[in-house]
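User: I'm writing a tutorial on reading structure tokens. Could you give me a worked example: one chain, its sequence, then its tokens, then a sentence or two explaining what the tokens reveal?
Assistant: Sure. Here is the example chain.
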Amino acid sequence: MIFFALFVGLAMISCSDDSVSIIDFDDDDDETEELVYSINFEVEGTGDTFTFSVDMEGATIEGEDLPDDFEGDIFEFNPEIHEVFIAGAMVGWPEPGSERTLRLTRAGSNGGVIPAGNTEFKFFIVINEEPSWGYGEWEGNPNRSVEVTAGGTFSAEWGDQPDVEEPDGDFPETLYLAGSFQEAGGYGSDWSPAEGPQLGSTDTGVYDGYVYFAEEGFEFKLVKGDDWGDGDFGGADGELTDGGDNIDAGDAGYKRVFVNAVDMTYSLTTTVWGIIGDATPGGWDESTEMEFDADSKTWTITTDLEDGEMKFRANDAWDINVGDNDGDGTLENDGGNIEVTAGNYTITLDLNGTEWTYNVEAN
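And here are its predicted structure tokens:
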């Protein structure tokens, strides 16, 4: 009778509170009392790995970094009911929690294959396995950054925000391209800054945009306003100089023009755009190519979509991709996935100007 009563008592204790949410993580987190979470990625083409880790001891989110709908002034990480995820450019910035392979554990998890090179990322907390951008280390920029190398590691404490030094100099909000390409590409008169395509600023002294060069052999300069009197950049071989020589645009094509006026560098990348995601014909493995319209300088495709998510990427690779972080119809580099429902759609991608947009229209 004594043993029976003891058993009943224990059973009552273990089942007394149905309101507690228990998540079975099914990993070896209990092997250590430390709260260091890590994930290993295979570095593409090397056969070796790169490890990201974050120390969650005492991890909190406070003040303006908390979601708007959070009740209270501080959120405290609880290893019993919360999970840790990574999101970043190396994996296409999926919403934290949406891809379970990107969960960090105290035993160390495996996240798949990522390319070598510099990448940006952040750590996030996920609650009740519900995907969300709401519980990141801090809101907005800067992202963390690291050079992914074979055998390398990155480790940090949660919320230890990197210092960002504001570069010296007076940088305009917009750069205008003026050159011999304008008339042929539908950008007004040649060498007319006010009619030329514009590059928007993504950070202090950093500019990004897309320009159509209808033929090879065109030249251009980067004007610091809509008038030549504002000054300009020229250069060659990826190096900029103030008032330098005309820049050779090279072969014809729809090109990303990326400028870092802090480092005085630039790059031109020919792009062919497509859609990708579990909602698209190619899934997450292969982009479905879009068609370029030289008159509107937009990309379009009419296709069947499934229930799921999609985004846009160039050249069937993750180096250049855009998505919608806020669901407002505007696009950001490495932005969030776009949710769609099943049906036949005409999809338009517009990367003209300093605000990039898209449209998904049901047929």
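What the tokens reveal: The mean pLDDT is 89. The radius of gyration is 25 Å.
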